[in-house]
Design a protein that fits this description.
alpha/beta; 18 helices; globular; disordered N terminus; binds iron/sulfur cluster
Length: 481
Amino acid sequence: MRAPAKRLARVIGLVGSNPTPSATLGSRRDRGTVMDTTQTLFNLSALESAGWQSPPRYYTWTVGCQMNKADTERLESAFSQMGFLPTTSPTTADVIVLNSCVVRQSAEDKVVGTITSLKPLKKANPTTVLAVMGCMVGPNQERQLREKFPYVDVFMQPQQYKPLLDLLGERLDMDWEGCVGTLAPLNPQVTTYVPIIHGCDEMCSFCIIPYKRGREVSRTIDDIVAEIEHLVPKGVREVTLLGQTVDAYGNDFSAKTDLADLLEAVNDINGIDRIRFLTSHPNYMSKRIIEAVASLSKVCEHINIPIQAGSDSVLARMRRPYSVEKYLSIIETIRETVPSVSLSTDIIVGFPGESDADFEGTVRVLEEVRFDKVHTAAYSPRPGTIAWRKIPDDVPAEQKQLRKHFLEDLQQGINADINDRYTGKSYQILIEGHERGRWKGRTRTDKIVFVDSDTDLLGKLVTVDIQASGPWSLQGTLVRQ
Ligand code: SF4
């Protein structure tokens, strides 16, 4: 007989806002279930036959982008609503989930290494469920992955949690769909990521994401606002709205709705102090969105807008549908409209056919724009992408590394210069954590600031005087909280 998980979990406060309780505690024993010392309820015989602890423990491991981290948090929310507890080691887990990234070869190598390292554990404990989710698992790839990793129990595409939850429900004799409500993080950080648009329609020639995450699907404004309102009482003060092309938000709706509308709605939520969004695509960075950044009080003056290369011919081969000139004109509009803005970008060096002259174009863009942050990656062909199929990877690995290091050195100097201008001034920062004995917060412009205080500052907006700076962070003293 199935445990009435939805009703019982609700009574003991394990579920989100959706399910409605209707059971009484007295009915539990009648249904052959037991309550353990942590007040979690399971069908004991199902737990025993699964060979799991009571309550069962889960372990998650995540690599890759913020979207992956957000996906893991949502799966963890489902686990918790089903009564599972987290554990810090795979050796003490009944369920292990690896959330994978294959955007770069180094990330894929890490994932393969981690799956392989768990083989002995899985052999020693065959009842442990091992699941792999995320970008390694594309549509129609399961058979191939099963052949390579036969000891993995479940493969799930990004955000497709159902196969694992079905398996766990079966093992626990539990109606998980009745148990699991809103998939919002249960213990969110002060600054939390909220996915607003899934997938990507762009098909950049180097990128595997559209093949793994599918077409763009925006969540409704009501849905997103409800999730954020749910997060506020849990201590969240800042949200970063996430999407692979976040500024394309709403393009898939029939009614005219865009990121500016969503920013306005989130700006009205009581308890939220700051709003950011990530990652923008130059094609969708409209004047309306830029004006929303300028006018909405909670939207931070920071925009991440990847250019990827400073050469039109490389951009064309990358299938990035803009020119360097167009990109620079967007930057000009942003700076005119939001004068205090900080800008960050992503660059790929060594894309096939990138000549010295092409690379010099990228150097010029960095010198001209003077971004606050640049993420540089050396191109690595990803199987299945257009570039992998059609464009020979002809820039030698050493050349890629030389170019990457050149840009990193150049940007380090620019960072140091920009950050130096913060010294001697006061800024409001939101304290989001404690690191190496100091409080860590960020300015609205996304500068990391460290500050000393014996008071608990977590989640507080405080004013600091900046005393010193380096390329990666600022040091401040507390003025007031
Ligand atoms: S915009 Fe291009 S790089 Fe970004 S996720 Fe989509 S395809 Fe990949």
